[in-house]
Specification:
Blueprint: E1 7-10, E2 13-16, H1 27-31, E3 39-45, E4 48-52, H2 54-67, H3 76-89, E5 95-103, E6 117-124, H4 132-137, E7 139-147, H5 164-176, E8 181-185, E9 191-194, E10 198-203, E11 206-209, H6 219-230, E12 235-237, H7 242-246, E13 250-255, E14 259-266, E15 269-270, H8 278-291, E16 302-305
Parallel strand pairs: 7-8, 7-14, 11-12
Antiparallel strand pairs: 1-2, 1-6, 3-4, 3-5, 4-16, 5-6, 8-9, 10-11, 10-13, 13-14, 14-15
The chain binds 4'-deoxy-4'-aminopyridoxal-5'-phosphate.
4'-deoxy-4'-aminopyridoxal-5'-phosphate is lined by residues 38, 167, 193, 196-198, 216, 218-221, 254-256.
């Protein structure tokens, strides 16, 4: 069960967690148009915490609305402030933050013009999304029988609730078959992304990840690419097949929730030795050093706050 906090920011006001309710005719509940974000905050030291890459998440939250022809009644600065305030109001030193925008009730049918756009921001403590053991030792993944949406069927650059129907089908299939997570291929059969993560492989010291064509532009993905370049690890944004994944030396998933989770098996094939290899370990270490403020090189990625 989710670890509840006290307050949720809703349309500019803080209300009690249990009172943050919507009408059953909320338009987005019926038709899936609800842009959202997943953001993490980490404790830096006893007196300070920081949100990781807040501006980039706020930008993507607005990009999602732009793609969907939705307008928010708030500015980027107001949303960024509200996110920090939600953490402070709930005295959360570390946790996961979920801003969501949705079209409210009023009219029904697909095309509505006057239904209000609401925004809510919740935050709660959330540990390793794919488990502590997964973070350390890697997870078992299954390639989904469902493919990622065609780029002209769903707008992959928009993080919208409805797009997750595809992810949930894939995730359920893999979980019910006994795996931890799933990877979806694109319509041409190349590796696209996880249900809520981007995918990386390591082969002969080179890091490869699918190009942004048909996937969500992950902020963790962007972070990893920058860190790899700083460490002189060659990075290729290039398509690869599922069998290239099978014979990789290492592989991992990246995402705000999943952080950097090594993959130890895909479709019952061990990846490399079955243990996180050096490039994965290095990237994982650099990532955690930065988000927790131990590495001072990317302070610009941290938005500090006190609770
Ligand atoms: N792909 C999908 C489908 C996702 O849901 C996520 C999580 N937001 C990601 C990739 C990773 O994105 P990020 O690193 O920005 O969390």
């Amino acid at each position: 069960m989710i670890q509840k906090t006290q307050y949720i920011w809703m349309d500019g006001k803080f209300i009690k967690w249990d009172d943050a309710k919507v009408h059953v005719l909320t338009h987005s509940l019926h038709y899936g148009v609800a842009p959202f974000e997943g953001i993490r905050a980490y404790e830096i030291d006893k007196s300070r915490s920081a949100v990781f890459r807040l501006d980039k998440h706020v930008d993507r939250f607005f990009d999602s609305a732009h793609i969907m022809l939705m307008e928010y009644p708030y500015t980027r600065e107001e949303i960024a402030d509200a996110i920090i305030q939600t953490l402070q109001k709930n005295k959360l030193k570390a946790g996961y933050i979920r801003p969501i925008a949705f079209v409210g009730d009023g009219d029904m049918g697909l095309y509505v013009e006057n239904n209000p756009v609401h925004i809510a921001i919740a935050a709660w403590p959330w540990g390793a999304y794919l488990g502590e053991d997964g973070l350390k030792n890697g997870i078992r993944v299954k390639i989904s029988s469902y493919i990622r949406y065609n780029v002209n069927a769903a707008m992959s650059k928009a993080k919208i609730s409805g797009h997750y129907v595809n992810s949930i089908l894939a995730k359920k299939e893999s979980k019910l078959a006994g795996y931890d997570e799933t990877i979806l291929l694109d319509e041409e059969g190349y590796v696209a992304e996880g249900s809520g993560e981007n995918v990386f492989i390591v082969k002969n010291g080179v890091l490869k990840t699918p190009p942004l064509t048909s996937i969500l532009p992950g902020i963790t993905r962007d972070t990893i690419i920058q860190l790899a370049k700083e460490n002189r690890i060659p990075v290729e944004e290039i398509r690869f097949t599922r069998d290239e994944l099978y014979i990789a030396d290492g592989a991992f998933l990246s995402g705000t929730a999943a952080e950097i989770t090594p993959i130890r098996e895909v479709d019952d094939r061990k990846i490399g030795t079955g243990k996180p290899e050096p490039v994965t370990q290095l990237i994982q270490k650099r990532f955690f050093d930065i988000v927790k403020g131990r590495d001072k090189r990317h302070k610009d990625w941290l938005s500090y706050y006190k609770v």
